Amino acid sequence: MPVSSLDRRRFIQIAGAGAVAATQIGCGRHQIALGQRREIPTTCELCPNKCSVIAVVEDGLIRKLNPNPENPKSRGMLCARGNAGLLQVYDPNRLKRPLIRAGARGEGKWREVSWDEAFDYTAQRLSAVKEKYGPQGVLWSSTEAFAEVFFKNLGMAFGSPNIVRHPTLCLASVNLAYSMTFGTVPSFDLLNANYVIMAGANRFEALITPDTMDLIESTMNRKTRLVCLDPRFTVTASRADEWYPVKPGTDMAFILAMLHVIISEGRHDKEFVANYCQGFEQLAELVKQYTPEWAEKETEIPAADIVRIAREFSDAAPRAVFYAGRRSSTYQNDFQMRRAQAILNAVVGNWDREGGMVPNAKIALGEYMFLPWDDPQAPRVDEMEKNFPLAAKGDGAYLKLRENVLAGSPYPVKAWMILKQDPLNALPEQAKTMRMIEQMDFIAAIDIQMSDTTWYADVVFPESTYLERLDPIEVLSGIWPVVVLRQPVVKPVYDTKPCLDIVQGLARRLGLQQYFDYTIEQWNDAAVKELPLEMPLEYLKKHGVYTPPGGPKYGATLNPEHRFVTKSGKIELYSERLQEAGHDPLPVYQPPLGPPEGRFRLVLGRKAYYTHANSTSNPWLLDFAPENHLSINPAAAASVGVADGDMVEVSSSVGAVRLRARLTQEIRPDCVYMLHGFGKQSPWLKRAYHRGGSDAAILETAWDKVSGNAAMHETFVKIRKV
Amino acid sequence: MHDKRYALVIDSRKCINCKACVVACRAENQVPLGASRDWIGEEHRGTWPRLLAAFQPEQCHHCVNPSCVRVCPTGASYQRDDGVVLIKEEDCIGCRYCMIACPYNARFFREDKGVVEKCTFCAHRVDRGESPACVETCPSKVRVFGNLADPAGKLQQLLATRQFHVMKPQTGNDPQIYYLL
């Protein structure tokens, strides 16, 4: 079909990727109806929020992504990343066809191969590892994605117990702490709360839906009081009514002192505690020692303010929440700090109340009945039962797993299958992850871009981007859950496949096809058949999202007969299970180590326009921060002879990176900060390549003792002008 | 007065500097990298730990008396009856007088096309009954777009009940972005 020069020019502008545009149109692979404008609802994949979007497709090209107002979780918005998502499709540096490594690992020599060859070769290499080391010799790691279930299932059908997912690099400590207390992980009703305490969470820069939008709405329009504790003056701090630059690692002292004030003054919800909680007497006894005066010395927050905040908080309850945060753990006692939060919330009786902490509502999806496989014979390589008996076994504990793989203990793991994850940047201590890569006989990666880890793979499977594929239908949980569909808005531009096709291609060659004998359409048909809709699939294709009528509901669990999914069936302020596992049954304070003379604590955080380490090569986003800097307080900078803009070396016991210093008043003098996702080693991430430094290179390995979650704020760094 | 006068009311307190509006505009209007039709002004003040940070979304103010239109030698810069100030690309000779005349630095020169460009209030969307891309995409709904000529409209309601100011009122341009206090 002829394409006028005008359209070609317009496409080039849209894509910002002239070379690709010309190739695509020139080769005439697609039927493009000129002048046709279609709006197709689908679901974003630029971050874990999965907002509903409407893709505007003109002449077969994605012209714009707009927010879909029908989804109450995304609240009718689309952030910078969501708007920039269309560049994933038209990125000239994306993965376009299957690759097999031709030179040494990391040398960057690749051979473009057919899908058949990539499948055959991978299956042959995996079978060789299986023959020598057993199926447990293959590690399957993935990060959160709708299609992750297929990849995990392939690993399990293969017979490997070693499936490791992202939570222990993310919020495993939060999830475990709230689960151990309430038997579930609740959401926080920020829209209706009148008093919010946010510690170590930066909700106005690390966007979470609907929390970010709800907090803006409630603080700015309803005068909800926001108290923020953070060693940095973040955007959240700047919008808070009160901000305390808390001494890092002492948040728990603040919480325990609040409990001290609330309990000693009888400000807790006595009826709620009597009906729903167990262990209150032990808690009251424990927090006697944690006076506001003691907490002032720990936290550097004045005792009078702690007393006042505790009183205001309990006065505002149940419309008062101490927000759980949603980030990786910070210290090795992160679980206990999160437990202290959970307990504080419990005793003021904000459970399942409007403006409080609300258990997530459910929407049941149907399940496609596939043939089950035998359970793996071998135990997990990270020995979850021994190391983290209370944690979610299926997700694994990434850092402990890396230690054991490197030690070859309890058995060797020699092949690594990776979906959508970049362990070189996601895990602390990059050099160690590199050693893990080096000791693998075989590595294959499924991704849309050549991440740093993919760069070191032996086989690369290019996945279709989220705008080119049909994914499993999913529920987004929350106070008001929804069902969302991700459907293709354009055909794949290159020779790429969705995850299920890649899994099936491998399964066929591994003799496992009987477990994956279905199509994505059959999977989705099964998923939606229980929904109370006449034609559920047609509805979702048209709307992109199904929202159950009625809005949020509160109080379903507020019935003294309700059994919480805990050992006692009650909310466990005191936990026997923790005690049995050898942990403190109540949150006992342990002071953090301070930085040694001449060193600074490295603290991490996010910006609203980058997701983890995976969006810095997007040109529309990189425009806002073309490289990362080391943020340092001028007083601290003076002490090490560093001026604004100086190139500095930041070093820890595990590595060093170089980046420019940026002097800012907005950080404590004992901390330094750098943005995640920079210092890329993969030349195919053209725009982010060798810009700034990677925090993963200098973060030391440490984890929370109960959950196994990586502890990201335990590294003290040296700064030297270079 | 015309029955339509498009304008923006902006509640900067709600802005979290997330840049969604900037990328939405870039995508909607195919704005090349290196320039932006909308941006977020930042102000950081104070000494640790007494600090202040403020953000202010900015773009063309679609003034009632637009100095850019007055200085344009070819009439390429013009104003619609509904107040939207536009540039007719075919008539723009790239002299850039308008860039100097604009008190808000809202215009930029496109080397590739040899013309000046700026915010159009997404007139093409507005004419379809949609709101501008920056307005629609915003997580905190900082911008409220509407018809100032409608006495019962949401803009007049906001301006009747809230304190506000405009930027650089002394220019006589009568800018039509109202910032709430």
Describe this structure in words.
The complex is a heterodimer of chains A (722) and B (181). In chain A, helix 1 packs across helix 2. Chain A is 31% helix and 15% strand. The radius of gyration of chain A is 26 Å and the shape is globular. Chain A has 4 domains: 86 residues, N-terminal domain of TfIIb, CATH 2.20.25.90; 175 residues, Rossmann fold, CATH 3.40.50; 171 residues, 3-Layer(aba) Sandwich (Dimethylsulfoxide Reductase, domain 2); 122 residues, Beta Barrel (Barwin-like endoglucanases), CATH 2.40.40. Chain B is α+β, with helices and mostly antiparallel strands and 181 residues long. Chain B has one domain: 2-Layer Sandwich (Alpha-Beta Plaits). In chain B, the strands form 4 sheets. In chain B, strands 8-1-10-9 form a 4-stranded mixed beta sheet, covered by helices on one side. Chain B has a two-stranded antiparallel sheet with strand order 2-3. The mean pLDDT of chain B is 97.
List descriptors.
heterodimer, A: 722 residues, alpha/beta, N-terminal domain of TfIIb, Rossmann fold, Dimethylsulfoxide Reductase, domain 2, 4 domains, 7-stranded mixed beta sheet, 6-stranded mixed beta barrel, B: 181 residues, alpha+beta, Alpha-Beta Plaits, 4-stranded mixed beta sheet, two-stranded antiparallel sheet, 20% helix, globular
